[in-house]
Amino acid sequence: MGTVVEAANKDAANGNGSILNKNLTVVFVLGGPGSGKGTQCSNIVKHFGYTHLSAGDLLRAEIKSGSENGTMIQNMIKEGKIVPSEVTIKLLQRAMLENGNDKFLIDGFPRNEENRAAFEKVTGIEPTFVLFFDCPEEEMERRLLGRNQGREDDNIETIRKRFNVFLESSLPVINYYDAKLKVRKIDAARPVEEVFESVKAIFSPKNEKAD
Ligand SMILES: Nc1ncnc2c1ncn2[C@@H]1O[C@H](COP(=O)(O)OP(=O)(O)OP(=O)(O)O)[C@@H](O)[C@H]1O
Ligand SMILES: Nc1ccn([C@H]2C[C@H](O)[C@@H](COP(=O)(O)O)O2)c(=O)n1
Ligand SMILES: [Mg+2]
What we know:
By secondary structure, this protein is of the alpha/beta class.
């Protein structure tokens, strides 16, 4: 594997395009495992016309596609570890290019400092803001154990590893953006509808679609 930048340049040279120089609005959606990122992103899409890209969903789709990286990704997800940025950024870039929208919710990314720095270097994109769903571990654990979507990482052993990775690697990224006044923190321990009321207040009401 080369560097992330080499991979992006190779893609562009192969005619796979680049998201460099496109005028995109990007909101990073962060929070611990089970904090409700995916649930709230679905609501935001319906009301505000964003495209939702979940890094975890893209990685799971890559496993299913039979890609050469599939086994490596599967093993890392089972261990709650973060997949190398080169792989995840390539998937995100491809999805953004294929989609054609100019407003993206990027859910579960950047998950560590390597993700953050590499994405900025490859795409030149700084998020407009960062939505942070703040939720206590006991509540997140309860939600994950009750999710029932057949995810291989929704077992107590992997959940504990994911919590540790969140504290050690993902929180520093949130702190990085907080220092730049980009973090919009939401109390995610409340019922879905109440959380969404707070989310709505953050996204400009004038952009809301009529029902
Ligand atoms: N505010 C809420 N109150 C109660 N349950 C919730 C709430 N938000 C989401 N859930 C439920 O909790 C589970 C996890 O939610 P979701 O998949 O949105 O979390 P996530 O942050 O995307 O998790 P992951 O990082 O593992 O992908 C789901 O079963 C969802 O229905
Ligand atoms: N930037 C990312 C995002 C996700 N992953 C891997 C590791 C996570 O535990 C798993 C599931 O993600 P989720 O659906 O909970 O957001 O996917 C990663 O390596 N890098
Ligand atoms: Mg999710």
